[in-house]
Amino acid sequence: MYGAERGTRDGVPEEDREVAEMPEWGRVSGGGRAGRRRPLRVVEVTGPSMVPTLYHGDLLLVQYGAPVRPGDVVILRHPFQQDLLVVKRAVERRPGGWWVRGDNTFAGGDSTDYGVVPEELVLARVRARYRPPAGATKGQRSVTELLGWAVSAVRPVRSASARLRAR
């Protein structure tokens, strides 16, 4: 699964990956008409393209095969480097697939660079974000710090923003 070099996976350096995939976490009923089961997985975010929604080190609960709607945060294969998984926001459906954007306009690496992403490259929909506590290895934390972290640690990532427009 990991490359021969330390810090690589499938021959791609870790710093070049947007999302590091983790083992399958479980399954959940899809709730669809046929009662299909859709796998849930946990993935880790690396890179700044989705700041301020997602930060480096955040863990995402993603559902593979879930229907995508405009505004959803999705996991997709990079159109030009298909061994690279990236996380972006699906802005709108266009002929040929999805127009996707990063929430950080200065990071680049979205449909403004590579155009419409084919539907088959959009793999999963992000259901929730879990932000690990900062400085978790420091030891004792105050009750106020723990409560503040607990309130902000787990959040859905869906955006109903009307500001999302494809260019």
Q: Structural class given helices, strands, pairing?
A: mainly beta
Give the end-to-end Cα distance, rounded to a whole number of Å. 37 Å
Query: Which stretches are low in confidence, meaning pLDDT under 50 for 5 or more residues running?
Result: 1-16, 22-35, 160-167
Count of helical stretches: 2
Q: Based on CA inertia axes, which overall geometry fits?
A: elongated
Based on CA atoms alone, the radius of gyration comes out at 17 Å
Please, what is the average pLDDT? 75
Percent helix range: under 10%
Number of E strands: 10
For the largest beta-sheet, the strand count, sense and barrel status come to: 8 strands, antiparallel
State the order of secondary-structure elements, H for helix, E for strand. EEEEEEEEHEHE
Strand content: 35-45%
How would you describe this structure to a colleague?
The structure is a single chain. The protein has 167 residues and is mainly β. Helices cover 9% and strands 37% of the residues. The strands form 2 sheets. Strands 3, 4, 5, 6, 7, 8, 9 and 10 form an 8-stranded antiparallel β-sheet that branches. The chain has a two-stranded antiparallel ribbon with strand order 1-2. A hairpin with a 2-residue loop joins β1 and β2 (12-13). Mean pLDDT is 75; it is low at 1-16, 22-35 and 160-167.
Looking at this protein, list some descriptive labels:
elongated; mainly beta; disordered C terminus; 37% strand; 10 strands; single chain; two-stranded antiparallel sheet; 8-stranded antiparallel β-sheet; 167 residues; 2 helices
